[in-house]
Design brief:
Two copies of one chain form a homodimer. The first copy, chain A, is of the alpha/beta class. Chain A is built from eleven helices and 13 strands. In chain A, helix 1 runs parallel beside helix 8 (236-251) and helix 9 packs across helix 10 (287-301). The two termini of chain A are 15 Å apart. The A-B interface holds A 182-185, 205-206, 217, 219-223, 226, 228-229, 257, 260-261, 263-264, 296, 298-306, 310-311 and B 182-185, 205-206, 217, 219-223, 226, 228-229, 257, 260-261, 263-264, 296, 298-306, 310-311.
Chain lengths: 320, 320
């Protein structure tokens, strides 16, 4: 089933210890759509300027990505410049030029309002709410955000969070938004706003899935897939979301087992993304490549068979 | 089957953001023996001064720990003082008084030379070699070490490593000893010296097991068990080794599956250790407590049943 994604489409300047790129195709919507298109039909909603290279639009079309929701308006495309240090952790932002993205108000074309999977990439939470209000009862809506909105639009973000099924944040964002040093306590605070699940992205340390409700610790953890060299971490979080949403949209499995496997797919897709600049590692990537890494990852992480009781419990639907 | 452990027995002064302790029972041998005694008979080899409190010796005896290899000599017991910052990562060493430990030469009593499981805690690698030469072909010998010996006795340490089946190091030690920034490449370099397996302790980020040989990535990874508050990380590595060796000695299972479960036991025992100062959390700990955490951990980390092929492969003996 289809996935609608709203977010930035950008031209990036990126510096890492492995080199640098100018005018690289970037933006959360770009990364997400490119990776998610391996799993399911993707509908992009965003904006670019008239300077946006035709080759990039052609690339999206070559992935069967629906661009009817992408506005092309007079002016310059959103640009971001960032630099990563030797540890390849958080980027230092060198420049942000909103350009046409500054006045962006997403309008969802009528025939896309029933797309069942919706991913709200990191944008102004007021826009995230605007988009959700245009969608007809999605089967699964998820959002990402960042520290900027937590500091400047906390109430709007809390409202947006209360309207989605799944929230994806990184470790420091969970601590910042919740004010809790302990990650599990922070997760509980965010889940108390309404979402059914929180996915915590932990970079090279993997990811966690915390489900709301229940007296037990509804906690699932995976390490990151080990890659020999991280070349450029840009887009790791967006393509994590793409693997996660893509797996769910492809399988329709909204059980706990489905969500767990979706987290693994997120982890694995991100592990490919960071192995090259921009979306370059994703261009030749196939679902078979991801499945091969999935088998290797299962082998690397399991130490016991699951009991029948566990398997049954994992199979119960927990969303929709 | 029994485990012989050689290492420091100490009185520690520890400061953490949660408080401080004076004259706390510590030392690698102490931590290891206390935790491993939950799994199997433990034989301690070490040295204390005449100032060492009788109550501590009585405690060891209450755990059925064999103290025939512990020398009590005139002088003061080894003392260590350290401080942990807000992140509870590596300790800053404030003071080290070797005292009677400075002249320690371990002599293994005759009837302990056939103990089948041997753990060489972090001590001078020349002493580790001395001890191994006194042991009669142990079923499993493992060692720990630290950055000091890597800097000052590199050749001796390489020789000691070549004589054991399993090496346990933390992440930064693997990088330091191997000179490789990439952990897997560093692991390969260490395994090329002869050991069958390397366990990499990663603190709050879990642990890895890398086996030598084979064309596949013989890699197993677990996250750390999430604990709400880390009170004092001292002894986490030593009790990781205790859970690892204890599980193997108790079950005798030296298959890959056995080693993986042993890594999980190491992770879990360490997760208890850090929840209080000194060995205080280990005093009331039972195997049932560890098994309960083991079940929870399996639940938290698995996302697929293992195939029969995987289970068969994991069951093949890989040591002895």
């Amino acid at each position: 089933m289809g996935i609608l994604v709203v977010g930035s489409i950008a031209l990036d300047r990126v510096e890492t210890p492995f080199g640098s790129r100018e005018d690289a195709l970037g933006g959360a919507c770009t990364y997400f759509a490119t990776a998610a298109s391996l799993y399911a039909p993707v509908h992009m909603v965003g904006v670019v300027g008239t300077d946006f290279p035709q080759a990039h639009l052609d690339f999206f079309r070559s992935r069967q990505i629906d661009l009817r929701g992408v506005q092309i308006v007079p002016g310059k495309t959103f640009r971001w410049a960032g630099r990563y240090g030797q540890d390849l952790a958080d980027a230092e932002t060198l420049a942000t030029e909103l350009n046409v993205f500054g006045d962006f108000h997403p309008v969802i074309p009528d025939d896309l309002r029933r797309v069942p999977y919706v991913f709200l990439a990191n944008i102004d939470p007021d826009l995230q709410i605007e988009i959700l209000s245009q969608m007809a009862n999605p089967r699964l809506a998820a959002l990402d955000s960042m520290n900027y909105w937590m500091a400047h639009k906390r109430d709007s973000l809390a409202k947006a969070i209360s309207k989605v099924h799944v929230v994806l944040l990184n470790e420091s964002e969970v601590r910042l938004f919740s004010g809790e040093a302990n990650l599990i306590a922070g997760a509980r605070a965010i889940l108390s706003l309404g979402p059914r699940a929180l996915v915590i992205k932990r970079g090279e340390h993997g990811a966690m899935l915390i489900l709301s409700g229940g007296s037990e610790a509804n906690l699932f953890m995976v390490p990151a897939f080990p890659v020999e060299y991280v070349v450029d971490p840009t887009g790791a979080g967006d393509t994590f979301a793409a693997g996660f949403m893509g797996y769910l949209a492809k399988t329709g499995d909204l059980s706990e087992a489905g969500l767990r496997r979706a987290v693994v797919h997120g982890t694995l897709v991100a592990s490919f993304t960071v192995q090259d600049f921009s979306i370059d590692r994703l261009r030749p990537l196939t679902l078979q490549d991801i499945e091969a890494r999935y088998s290797a990852f299962r082998w690397m992480t399991h130490f016991e068979p699951l009991s029948d009781v566990d398997v049954n419990r994992l199979s119960r639907p927990i969303l929709a």
